[in-house]
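Step 1: inspect the first sequence and its tokens.
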Amino acid sequence: MRTTHTFLLAGFGGQGILFLGKVLAIAGLLEDKELSWLPSYGPEMRGGTCNCSVTISDEEIGSPQVLTPSCLVVMNQPSFDKFDKSTEAGGFTFIDSSLVSSKSERKDVSVFYVPATTLANENGLKGLANIVMLGKICREYPFLPKETVLAALEKNNKKQIPEITERNNKAFAIGYAYEG
């Protein structure tokens, strides 16, 4: 079984890319793993590009930067154009097909097209496409137990507002159940 999981998450600012990375990192902490979380974003607030590198490992981590992820998540076309070829052979790529029209030509990775933005919006969960994607990632790339990831998602509800936890859990379940 793989002992190190590397994630590169990319999209526009405001899509919850850094939040998604934080949930992954907290899930790693809950499992007592070594981890790194490295956000990167442009000077723009919303609408600018951002990405986040996350490493969860049983071993010491040498560098926080992820250049060849075992799991790539792209939430917009510019991120797809920049990072599609970066996934390691045998890895996983998750694409928000609501916002990315291109198809990956990679034959050496498992590619999942998830209309995360559309699924979130159609279910009254605007702004939770990142959590829809998290559900799909947990189903297809089981890096940690699903229960741990859900616990990390709940821990990120700083004000412990039940409605936020309920909405996040609903978005996660939609992504987890998505068959595409």
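Step 2: inspect the second sequence and its tokens, then contrast the two.
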Amino acid sequence: MSTASPSYDLIVIGAGPGGYVCAIRAAQLGMKVGIVEKRSTLGGTCLNIGCIPSKALLHASEKYHDVKDNMAKIGVKVSGVKLDLDGMMGHKKAVVDANTKGVEFLMKKNKIDWLKGAGKIVAAGQVDVAGTVYNTKNIVIATGSDVAVPPGITLDEKRIVSSTGALELSEVPEHLVVIGGGVIGLELGAVWMRLGAKVTVVEYMDKILSTMDGELSKEMQKILTKQGMAFKLGTKVSKAEVEKKGVTLTLEPAAGGASETLKADIVLVAVGRKAYTDGLGLDAVGVARDERGRVKTDAHFQSNVAGIYAIGDVIAGPMLAHKAEDEGVILAEMLAGQSGHIDYNLIPGVVYTWPEVASVGQTEEQLKAAGVDYKVGKFPFMANGRARAMNAVDGFVKILADAKTDRVLGCHIVGPEAGTLIAEVTAIMEFGGSSEDIARTCHAHPTLEEVVKEAALAVLGRPLHI
């Protein structure tokens, strides 16, 4: 091994959204930064095989479905519509390529060195990359997460696939079974359902989107069922056997009882993700991890070993790219002697099905469990002029506010552009605002944002259009 020179102020291991954003902010603050990435492209799981390619397919499949099945409802008749799956996958690849090349450009612009290869911490202040040891004042672990696979199931990425394989299918399956009724399972299930697959979701819990507000879960299941998606809730998959023409699953009721079998062409395993912390040399240098393999950190993202920090999916909290990005920025600023802030209660979550689902803050279930006295305001998209004009009237906006102070405690949306609409409420909550602050803010007409305003008015008992 040889020791590289000069030394760095910061080396970030992992070039996903958390890692590369941390590196950029650190460079902006005057640090000499290196970023370690073993992939041939930057951007991590999110840009290469996660958020970005899945959104490309969600958008393309939504357009195909609209033209094929929905446009006639608004007076646009289209004939001879055909699916070009190769073309759709080409669109996905082009989007991924543009994004990853964009990150590479940002590294060069900010004079950040890409240290190519797998990174391993050999001591505090030293990182081995492909046989070369680099010295650094600080190390940030930002290696993200990997697919979690339940017992009794083996991925082959052909018949039994992870989200990675589900983004690469060469033909539309006749029957896709999705194990897991969370965000990834519903999104990718929606893609292939729109393209013609029969989709069955098997979920161990008694509801889909189990961490979200219960009313959102019920509404979304009703909408997806109407679209053609089937659900087997309160059910676990105990075995998956690959055969010549597909996969046979053994299903068991979570509450106990007789098992049954279910046949599929393709099975998508989407039961969650696990922190990617193995192989980094953490045990050898004494970095403590929790029972789920995540790095234990303090309020400043530092591990129990001075100078070694961690952000994103490898630490506690929601496994979301925007959470990792915010942590990366805050950590870089802290290392530069500045202060940082993140409110983990105010990290929005979005499901990019159609309609979308978005949530921020507390759910009704959480408020009830905590004994908080709260008020509820709901308003349906059915009563909104813009939603009617778009023929997108499913869903509602629901705002929860403190019964005494009117401070907004949570917002939950099922409907068109929910992921965009949630931003207004998140900003209001960040500044400790009230439902009346939203209600008394002028919203342009006709817009979907008016549903948010009406939900805020409903908290106060005075909605105008219902």
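Step 3: confirm your contrast with the notes below.
Residues 121 and 321 are 24 Å apart (CA to CA). The radius of gyration is 24 Å.
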